[in-house]
Amino acid sequence: MPLFAVTYRYEAAQTDEREANKPAHREWLAARVEAGSIRTVGPFVDGSGALLLVEADDDESARALIAQDPHCVRGVVPEITVREWMPVFGALA
Questions:
Q1: What is the rounded end-to-end Cα distance, in angstroms, of the chain?
Q2: Is 5:86 a contact under the CB 8 Å cutoff?
Q3: How would you class 24 by CB atoms within 10 Å of its CB: exposed for 0-12, middle for 13-18, buried for 19 or more?
Q4: Tens of pLDDT along 53-87?
Q5: Sheet harboring 38-43: ordered strands across?
Q6: 66, 53, 2, 72: CA torsion to nearest 10
Q7: Do residues 51 and 6 lie in contact, with contact meaning Cβ atoms separated by under 8 Å?
Q8: Phi-psi region of 25 (alpha: psi -120 to 50; beta: other; left: phi over 0)
Q9: By three-state DSSP, how is residue 9 classified?
């Protein structure tokens, strides 16, 4: 199944709202990782956003999954990019 590199871009003005929503966001992510639809996820250390590796049938399916993230539902992710990614070497290849 294809992998998609999904990036979230965060805005500093929404930090408090994101922090308040973080428990629901992380619970949702953990369940998706356990189910296998998200292979790995984590924030960028500079606080500017996050990277998710999503396993989905196609771009539309990846976007539909991400739209369910509580952060996306609450509107605290102002920019999302979704790009199909093909690992060649390493653990995910």
A1: 12
A2: no
A3: middle
A4: 999 999 999 999 999 999 999 999 999 999 999 99
A5: 38-43, 49-55, 3-9, 79-85
A6: 10
A7: yes
A8: alpha
A9: strand
Cα-based angle 83, 76, 52 (whole degrees, multiple of 5): 30
Residues in Cβ contact with 68 at an 8 Å cutoff, skipping those fewer than 6 apart? 28
Model pTM? Answer: 0.95
Q: Which amino acid is at 8?
A: Y
Judge residue 63's burial from the number of C-beta atoms within 10 Å of its C-beta, 0-12 exposed, 13-18 middle, 19 or more buried.
Answer: middle
State both tokens at 52.
């998710």
Write down the residue that tokens 């871009």 correspond to. 9
Kind plus residue range of the DSSP H or E element containing 32: helix 15-35
